[in-house]
Design a protein that fits this description.
single chain, 371 residues, alpha/beta, Rossmann fold, four-stranded antiparallel sheet, 10 strands
Amino acid sequence: VYSFKSFHAAILSYRDLASGYAMMCRMPYTLLTVVLNAMFLLLMPLGMVLIGGAADGWAVLADLVFYIFFAPQLAFMMERLMYAANAQMEAAEAVNKLEAILKESPHPEPAADSGSKPAGSSISFENVTFSYDGAARPALTNVSFLLPQGVAWALVGPSGGGKTTIARLIPRFFDVQAGTVLLGGRDVRSIPTAELMEQISFVFQEVRLFKKSIRDNIRAARPDATEAEILHAAQLAQCSDILEKTPGGLDAVIGSKGVYLSGGEMQRIALARAILKDAPIVVLDEASSFADPENEAKIQKAFEALMKGKTVLMIAHRLSTVRNMDRILVIRDGEIAEEGKHDELLEKGGVYAAMWEEYQKAAQWKVGGAA
């Protein structure tokens, strides 16, 4: 429900922007078109006057014919120049964005011996505050929680509340401005990147697949994995039907964005990759968002295989996927609004209870028959 409301608001916002821009350009563009094409209209009467008063009318007529054909081409070339100038501005903006990315400094890399190994796979946020560049308000404000080792927690809440930001701070995609993110009691900023990546498996809403075989896409998590281990991971991720229907099975080459695979099938391939990695910490950010009911049932079974014995942090808008989690944190406006088990949060009658009621209404919604 919240996602559809945001989507609808975005459509209306874009409609207003596009229509307003078009109306603003209506008069200037109309005048420009008239001016460019008026030259052709002036040639005819001017040419007749010149032919009538010239000593050599045929020579003037020849010039007139030339300009009759040349004038429309002049207008066409002027329009081409305008489009070229517009394309040049777009290209310049794209180059500026690329240069800004290339100029970004990587996070400081700690030394390989900068500290002891993380003591377990617990996750702790201690008074964490974080803001994105240019944002009007912080994405997270003074967030604190301790996710014990081997426990599965869920993050829920309205869109834009800060759930994905929490997920991205754990593998250190960003560094906090205040507070500390601890993994096994150790600050993630003191853990070398290679070591940190070994500790965490993550599956985000936007699945990234390579233009390679299904085998290579799964093996990316652990290049030294054997054929049997890859196949076992695919089976645990409920990918058997994908391998059966795809010519070549594990050898089938898929596109960079999962060409020939549905959104739910792409997510199952990504889950197979995470299962093969077998990291002690699992972060799932809307990992079943693009799944239809059939795919979602298979993804839930894949979750069971992936989450077994792991420290899990799951973000979901489909509340049915998190109702059996060990604990649920409700994130709103960058803060923890509520926390507890599913039934406890319903009894409180707060943010989560309202979300659950909306979710139940959305799940029961049907298209009405014709009047």
